[in-house]
Automatic annotation (TrEMBL):
The lineage of its organism: Eukaryota, Fungi, Dikarya, Basidiomycota, Agaricomycotina. Coiled coil: none annotated. InterPro entries: ORC3, ORC_WH_C. GO terms for molecular function: DNA replication origin binding. Residues 484-499 have a biased composition (Acidic residues). GO terms for cellular component: DNA replication preinitiation complex; nuclear origin of replication recognition complex; nuclear pre-replicative complex. It comes from the Eukaryota. Residues 362-386 have a biased composition (Polar residues). GO terms for biological process: DNA replication initiation. Residues 323-348, 362-416, 453-521 are annotated as: Disordered. This is Origin recognition complex subunit 3 winged helix C-terminal domain-containing protein.
Amino acid sequence: MLLKPTTPQLVEMTADSFESLSQGVFVIPFQEDENVTSGPSQPRRPLARLYEEAWTGFNSIHENFETSRTSEQLDDIADWLDRCSTPPLLKLPSNVARLPLAIVQNISAHLPPLLSTLLTHVYTMHGRETSDLTAAVRSLTVGFIGEAALANRKSGRTGLDEVERWWTSQKDKSPLLIHIEQAQLVPSSVLAELTYILTLHPDLPIRLLLSVPSTTLFLSTWTHIEPSAINLCILQAGKSRGKRGGAVNAILRAGRGPLRLSERTEEALRADEEMFGSGASSALKALKWLLLFHSQNSALAAVDEQDKLAELQAILEEIRKQGPDAQIPGNDLFELDIPPDLGHTQDPAPRISILHALSQPSSFHHSPQISTSPETVPGTSASGRSSTKRTHDESDSHHVSTTDESDSHHVSTTDERGDLKELQTLFALWRGAGKTVNLWDWLEGFRGVVVSDKEEENTSSPNEQESNGKKRRRGQGAGAGSGEQEEGDDDVDMDEEEVNGDKQDEQGDKPPQLSDQESERLHAAFIRFCEEARMLGLVRARAKGGPKRADEVIKSIGLV
């Protein structure tokens, strides 16, 4: 849903301000409407304690689940480390050094800091830090021996050779645990080369732990240089705690207090978790807004007066005794049903919603589509300065309804359809542009669209013009006294009509000119859209090393 901003205060501008776009660029400050008040941020009394207890219960369930899951995963990793240190039962004649590697799925966020309790030498790095092999090896070296020791070395040894020398000099020669968090972000070739290089140092007791959101997807995209040099182990922390959506299911199963979730709400939350995998944080956010929505818009919010609190307390006592599923009159008042806008409160994305609304304005009101022909697309002309000489014929396209200007004394304001029409026009011109957008072409294209729309409004059909001419001649003939005067008046009227017709034909070749006040208003609307487009990430300035052109910007995204 697009919010209509308040009418900006136009800055007084002279004719010289339009000489250069950089001189006319200014940011219109947002003025908050005094009549608009913010919505409630917490449930109102006297039932606020009831909702607070429900929210605290959801959080405690999630914390208990995460604590238990972290403990189970930590025990599984400890068992894997013990198995790696245990000598093999069978002694083969040719002992091949194999790199112990474990993959854990859906690791807890509280687990990485606890890995140091298992071994002395532990280093955790994120998958984003291993964009290439050099960065990965350097990160490992710095993580174990430090930045200062790596900078002071003067030999030609590699980073892992320095780690091996450092480990040999240590009194505690415990294994080295390397944990790569979000390992799916590491390029497959980089991870394959890294594991192969680690196998080339058999004297280093390295244990490699990879945490990924999906083991199946990770293994399907991972390649090996030498598969026989890896001792692979997949860790699973139980059926319910290791699988996807376990935290959400635990919250939904245990949330059976006085304020209980309806079946439709539970199905919607599980479906969203199955589709997006947002985790418990997204579900808790949805439950928080659901409690706030229920405290303001449900039937319970309408009967929470002081004189009815005794009846509500009696119903709550019966629910606690007989259970939430008991057939008690008034039990449905404490049921949390799914609100109509659960999808927006559970996973809000205002930026995507705004771009979707601008791309498909028909969802808000029925209107024709805006043409993005090369004549109206900004940045397609050879020069930005030549765009100021364009006429309205270069912007021939059908657009949404134009600004309502019935009030001639208040031209600076537009109705909702006019505001949305201007936003749609500016966004369509941006969308149809190339990699770069010339601001002058963008502004002139916007003005040309507005001028052409005004011309379509002011131009009536030929039948209406002919009927108006006949009525005018009939009225003039009825007011004449004699036939000769009527004929003379008719001749004069015909001559005047021919002259006026010639003048109208000459004026019809020229586009209608905008007033100074209307030009300033369009310029202000254009600058405001440019500033909002910059904040949304639609446009950005050129780099410092690029060409010095202040009237061009680069399109940041092209996904819409």
